Amino acid sequence: MILLGSTGSIGVNTLLVAKRLNMNVDVLVAGKNIELLNTQIAEHKPSVVVVARKEDVEKVNHKKVYFGEEAIVKVIEDSNSELVVNALVGFLGLRPTLTALACGKKVALANKESLVACGNFIDVSKIQPIDSEHFGLWYLMQDRPVKRMIITASGGAFRDWDIDRLKNASLADTQKHPNWSMGQKITIDSATMVNKMFELLEARWLFGEGEYDAIIETQSLIHALIDFKDGSTTAHFANASMQLPIAYALNEKMQENILGHVDLLKVGSLEFREIEIQRYPIWSIKDELLANPQRGVVVNAANEAAIELFIAKKIGFMDISNSIIGAYEKFDISPTTLDDVFAIDKEVRSFVRSLF
Length: 356
Hints:
The chain is an alpha/beta fold and 356 residues long. It has 15 helices and twelve strands.
């Protein structure tokens, strides 16, 4: 396989599953965590390595090391591997997804932004999502008429905060996720509920037109539910680990035991909550966005630009959602070509930065 984002949580878990399945790792692509990358190189012995920055190349213990976005695209084109695991964070992951698909490779996709920003131009038949929610929906699918697909949210770091405190929330506060240990951006996205909005958009592209929604399930034991037209509902339970969806993305005929089962007697009870607009303002555009999923490029660009400003302490936490909503209202446009996707992305980012 080609693994993009090897030192992140998805990448680390992917390598654990790959070792278990005796899969060869041809290419490793990583960011700035060179110490962990060198450990991965020693264990998995890739043919080629790519890092984010030129200054890190000499620190990598490998004979073939490249750097930058263009190098990622080139190693995908040059590799004989038929599988690309894309665990890159942000819009940076889009070109590698498009390149892999153009090369006829299968993409195990953990990069949400690829489908969110560019779903209209991606052949989803070649995509296997690495996400517990989409995996859960896929796992539950039967040859029966579906009324509604539902995914669950943890509620993020601020689900129990007094709403009046949110305007003063710091970057450190956003990282205190109640259920998961994830990267900085996705943990911020969880706190704003943007992450769940993105997952609904992904589900729309993956499974087609239909009714989609999300609810909060505080323990993250139920990942997806399907309401069938006959009045029945099925739910996908699994302990919180990304190794299960990763295993199926690497081998769809998975028959090994990957996780321990959920013990409902130990769980005792489950708590469900509504996703409230007052706490999660981004939810106010959810229905319109799902009806116009091509506009996901606007939401993604605005979100990434706003998060940059928040990290730089130029805006407050609640300004992230407000910036996204403002950009969504201003840019009532949908891309008609791939070039439009990149042009809109650039224009929206400039707009958001100009607000502050």
